[in-house]
Specification:
Layout: E1 2-5, H1 15-26, E2 33-34, H2 42-55, E3 61-65, H3 67-79, E4 82-86, H4 92-96, E5 101-104, E6 111-114, H5 116-124, E7 136-141, H6 149-155, E8 160-164, H7 178-186
Parallel strand pairs: 1-2, 1-3, 3-4, 4-7, 7-8
Antiparallel strand pairs: 5-6
């Protein structure tokens, strides 16, 4: 099972979520993909995913993009899950504090107020350090124009990681890693680290 967690102001209709789901459908694995429309409220979003985790027959792989990567890290630590993190928002409370005010979901058109209370809720989800690096895979592109990829490299330093030159926040080479992500979903955590690709 794969639980895909989208980013801030995003949705299950995001490019990466739709491409991965379509790929899994072609392989007859469509039913093993879940991507909820996450609330803009961090506490509510976490509760949404916790309920989905509780329904899984086996431990799911969390795939988190941007803010979804921040959530995935907290959830992976709390529930002992594996997580693939795509251009993750490592310091989400800091990077999202500039978005306080009225916001619009880029896909659904929903409008909402992002408040200091939401930023504080993100702070409460901060993970001080990774306790089991073998459970994580960082995928990042150095050309990310929204987040500094070097923050992710530092935080997930001992984890499996793939760092690609260029690209942008959308992770432009997503299609190249679909099968590898499915392999990671079924791999033993003991598989350990791989070298960075820069």
């Amino acid at each position: 099972m794969i639980l895909y967690l989208h980013g801030f102001r995003s949705s299950p209709r995001s490019h990466k979520a739709m491409v991965l789901h379509a790929h899994m459908q072609r392989l007859g694995l469509g039913a093993d993909f879940v991507c909820p429309q996450l609330s803009h409220d961090p506490q509510a979003a976490i509760l949404q995913v916790e309920k989905l985790i509780a329904l899984c027959d086996a431990a799911p792989l969390l795939i988190g993009s941007s803010l979804g990567g921040y959530y995935a890290t907290w959830l992976a630590e709390r529930y002992g899950l594996r997580a693939a993190l795509v251009n993750p928002a490592v310091v989400a409370p800091l990077s999202l504090s500039e978005y306080i005010g009225p916001q619009t979901n880029l896909y659904t058109g929903e409008t909402f107020d992002f408040t200091q209370a939401h930023v504080d809720a993100l702070k409460a989800l901060a993970v001080p350090r990774i306790t089991h690096p073998e459970r994580y895979w960082l995928l990042a592109e150095t050309g990310d124009e929204v987040l500094d990829y070097r923050e992710a490299v530092r935080f997930y330093a001992d984890c499996k990681h793939t760092i690609l030159p260029g690209g942008d926040h959308s992770f432009t080479r997503w299609n190249d890693y679909l099968d590898a992500l499915l392999d990671f979903a079924h791999a033993s955590p003991a598989a350990g680290n791989t070298a960075a690709q820069v």
